[in-house]
Amino acid sequence: MLIPSGTVNDSNSGNNYAVTPVNGAGNITQRPLRVSATGVNKFYDGTVAAAVTLSDNRLLGDVFTDTYTSASFANVNVGPWSVSVSGISISGTDAGNYTFNTTAMTTATIAAASTATTLSSGFANVPPAMSVTIMLTAKVTNTVTPAIPTGSVTFTDTTTGTMLGTQTLNASGQATLNSASLGVGQHLISVTYTPADLNFSASSSAPNNVPAVTITGPPSGAVQAVNTTFNFTATFTDPDTASPSAQWSFDTTASANATVSGSNMTGAYVFTAAGVYNVTLTFNDGLGGIAIANAISSTNAPPNLLAAVVVYDPSAGFVTGGGWINSPAGAYAADTSLAGKASFGFVSKYQKGATIPTGETEFNYQVAKFNFHSASYQWLVISGSMAQYKGTGTINGSGNYNFLLTALDGNPDGFRIKITDPNTSSVIYDNRLGNDDNINSNNTQAIGGGSIVIHK
Description:
By secondary structure, the chain is mainly β. Helix content is 0%, strand content 55%.
């Protein structure tokens, strides 16, 4: 009910009129309320779900709360999009005094999800499979939302600048590359993530340090019989590792897991066949730092001799040798100024009932990057403390060349290898250049380390 009140202004203090109020009735209608939405930006999460904040034009002092049931982006992908809001309602002390809109529109932006890329590495093969294969695994994770990144990762050997390969991420955001293309030396692998679309940001693996590996034993050219155990030792330095592992490899014949303890690595292997076996150690720090070593360094030998062992069969008369010499200037015809350490290892013997000897000969002159490896033998002569045999072989893995090896089992032991071109008879290498080919001690050079043994 409305109860009126009032006065009359008649310029006579209201005395000219009598005022009688009459009660009546009236309505207060609800005030229209405009509820507005402001979109909240988000990172890509693979959904259209949105969040907004609400505001309105209520009268000062009125008390109530705005809420909504859902808000959705117009598109799931990265970009600025419209956002639709539904289920708007108000509640509270003064809510009944208003009418309001139940939907609203606004805008917001979906930003690319940040990612983190990690790299782990291990061995893909199980010894004695050869050759050693490194397995590189990249994992890309979304650092802000549950959405799994899509796209590809590229593995690069940053030490050599070689791209090793590109792999597509699987449904878990992971990719694996088995790489057998790593050569002797140090390798530092990194991985870079390339998104399949703009919904994710690119990222790369964290920096790592390249490991350094040194084979320390046995000495280059160490000689043992078949079916005996060779023990191998090495050390490494690397400030950051994660479950480091290593493998010993023996030519392309076999390999064996190394035991890693602190900064030391050990291994053991039993050779069942005579021959000269080049030794390689592959160290993997688990984070993409890989070092492959094939040289030996110890207090009893000059540095960087090729790591090799000589295995002989004691059941027949034969000659074995392993060690190093100081190759003199003039020995290498392609560059007569060169001089330095050269390593050797050999086995030569006649099998029972055979007329042609068998075995293996390896000669490495690293300063010249010169490697000779025997392919076949023609004959073997053992006379007292002297042995000499002849055959053919390859230089740096190719060609066909003749060689004559003369060995002295004495004090000191002596070694000579003469390698010639079969077409021209020209000398390619001879560490006793100018001497004749007779089998005598004057035609050998005293070895710098190792041993030569004639077995009878």
